[in-house]
From TrEMBL:
The keyword Cell wall biogenesis/degradation does not apply. Keywords: Nitrate assimilation. The keyword Protein biosynthesis does not apply. Gene3D superfamilies: TorD-like. This is Nitrate reductase molybdenum cofactor assembly chaperone. It holds the Pfam family Nitrate_red_del. NCBIfam families: narJ. The gene is narJ.
Length: 233
């Protein structure tokens, strides 16, 4: 598909929240954690099992349809094609990064503080990062949501909702099957509030921040505190 200069209006609409059980949410987040990670041969071997478990879970129709956009994509059945597509999308687009704090801070001096907040959140949930990866990596946050403290993970995901919505929008406008995975994640999150929607639309226009000197319009990034979210039920 050739690159486009336009984003369809439908892609600018936040994803509606869908009611799922706690067990279904954990399964969706664990599956998305693996499927959104770089498709190594070891991970790819588990794809058929993941598809089988998602099908057996009898998820709500909107979630199941969103997931099927990836699970039934031609790239899903060929590792080499999937690797090539993954790099073209996630390694080369500033608006399609897996690192959540980048959407709020960009490559600015606030990024370090933002990363510390993720590490502190994991520790508040009784976990330490045991992987050579930055703590704001979306697949890692989703794994924490599936196997760690779901409430703290929910705080992390909700407080970075505008970035997740921008990721979904970018993937949809690029025609990437990965858009279905991110859309399914958004469906499991609380209804987006007006302030978060405004930040999401601003991200669409401006993109992640560039380096700034002194205070920024975002204000200081405080240490992680449990219960701190931008969205609510």
């Amino acid at each position: 598909m050739l690159p486009t200069s336009f984003i369809p209006v439908s892609h600018l609409t936040e994803t509606a929240s869908v009611r799922v059980s706690a067990e279904q949410r954990q399964l969706i987040h664990m599956a998305a954690s693996i499927l959104l990670d770089y498709p190594t041969p070891e991970r790819y071997e588990n794809f058929p099992l993941i598809r089988s478990e998602l099908t057996a879970a009898k998820l709500p129709t909107p979630v199941a349809q969103a997931l099927s956009r990836f699970l039934e994509a031609p790239e899903f059945d060929d590792l080499q094609s999937l690797e090539k597509h993954y790099v073209s999308i996630f390694d080369l687009k500033r608006r399609a990064t897996m690192y959540l704090s980048y959407y709020l801070t960009g490559d600015t001096r606030k990024r370090g503080t933002a990363l510390v907040r993720f590490t502190e959140a994991y520790r508040a949930g009784g976990c330490e990062v045991d992987r050579d990866e930055l703590p704001d990596y979306l697949p890692m946050v989703l794994e924490f949501s599936a196997v760690g403290d779901t409430q703290i993970a929910g705080d992390l995901l909700s407080s970075h909702r505008e970035g997740i919505e921008l990721l979904r929008t970018t993937l949809e406008s690029s025609g990437s099957p990965y858009a279905g995975l991110v859309a399914a994640i958004c469906m499991t999150l609380p209804v987006i509030d007006r302030a978060t929607k405004e930040r999401y639309l601003k991200l669409i226009t401006d993109g992640p921040p560039a380096e700034m000197v002194g205070a920024t319009a975002m204000g200081p990034l405080e240490p992680f505190t449990f219960g701190e979210t931008n969205g609510s039920h």
